[in-house]
Structures are given as structure tokens and as C-alpha cells.
Amino acid sequence: MTVADFSSVQNLYTCHHRWLYELLRRRLSNAMDAADLAHDTFMRVLKRPQTFDCEVRERSYLATIARGLCIDHWRRRQLEQAWLATLAARPPALQPSPEQRAIIVETLHEVDALLQRLPKRVSDAFILAQLHGMPYRLIADEIGVSERMVKKYLAQAMMHCAILEAELDGLLIE
User: Which parts of the sequence belong to the RNA polymerase sigma-70 region domain (predicted)?
Assistant: First the structure.
């Protein structure tokens, strides 16, 4: 990042941080989450600085980034709530420790992000096979493809899972 880029981002922050924070606070109904997502928005801007010719485009750019972060935030919260509901149904003796819970929730977020990046049929086939234990023939009927395509989809999903596992283990070098 050049000095000019940093100066541009600094100016963007100075001019629009309060506006963005208020927009997020209204959308999320939570000041702490709004502050976090406003921060995350500017962190993304720092990674890819842009030049704008008017304030409307600056705000539009910031709002677009913030909207995507809100969607991710809501998806993460929904996933966490589903996990906590499942946990609540378990007997106290089978409850994971707080550290285990944190690791499980983070892993769920990573798997969810992985599934979101896969084509719909690939993620559908993976979920039907892994979570529902369906055989290839039934998966093929369910998603409207051949058994051979189901095998291909599952191989693709497993490859992405292996990459994710390697990333989580810190084995991949960028």
C-alpha cells in the first residue's frame, strides 16, 4: 500500500466512519456489532483501496462491503444458535468444555464458508451424503443428476474439505 493509498483510506475513514457506524447500528440493533463490522469494513478497504470521484460512490462502496459483512454476521449467528440449540438437548455430562465449544463453532463457520463457495449441487450432494447418510442413487434422484455426477460432486467437495483442513492446520503457504 502506498502513502497515497493510505491517505485516501484515512480520508474515507474520517469522512464516513460515523455514517457507516450509524447505518450498521440501525441494521444490527447492536452498537458493539456495529462497531466491529464498521472496523471490518475499513480493514477490507485497506486491503483493496479504491479511488472515487464523489461522496455518493464512496458511501455506496462502503455500504456494499458492510452489507456483505452483515450477511456473514447473520449467517454465523444463525449457525451458532442452531449449534447451541443442539447442545442444549444433550445431557450435562455430554456437554463440551467452553474451549471445545469455541473450536466447534469456529469449525462450523469454516465448513459453512466452504459450502457457500461450492456450486449448489455439489454442496447439496455433500450435505445429503454426510449429514443424511443417503446413498449415491438417492442423492442422484434428489438433485436430478446421474450417480456418476454425484460421485464427481462428492469428490470435488472432499477435495475442498481437504484444502480447508490443510488451511486450518496451517499447512498451506500463501
Answer: 12-78
CATH architecture of the domain covering 96-168: Orthogonal Bundle (1.10)
Query: What's the rounded Cα separation, in Å, for the pair 116 and 95?
Result: 28
CATH topology classification for 3-77: Rna Polymerase Sigma Factor; Chain: A (1.10.1740)
Using the 8-state DSSP alphabet, how is residue 96 labeled? Answer: P
Q: If you count them, how many residues does the chain have?
A: 174
The domain ranges of the chain are 3-77, 96-168
Q: Is the overall model pTM greater than 0.70, yes or no?
A: no
pLDDT grade for 174, boundaries at 50, 70 and 90:
very low
Mean per-residue pLDDT over the chain, rounded? 87
The residues, ordered by sequence, that sit 6+ positions from 84 with a Cβ below 8 Å of its Cβ are none
- ∠ CA(82), CA(114), CA(24), 5° rounding? 65
The one-letter amino acid at 39: H
Q: How far, CA to CA in Å, does 95 sit from each of 77, 84, 92, 100?
A: 20, 11, 5, 9
List the alpha helices (DSSP H) in 29-146.
31-47, 55-88, 98-117, 120-130, 136-143
End-to-end CA distance of the chain: 18
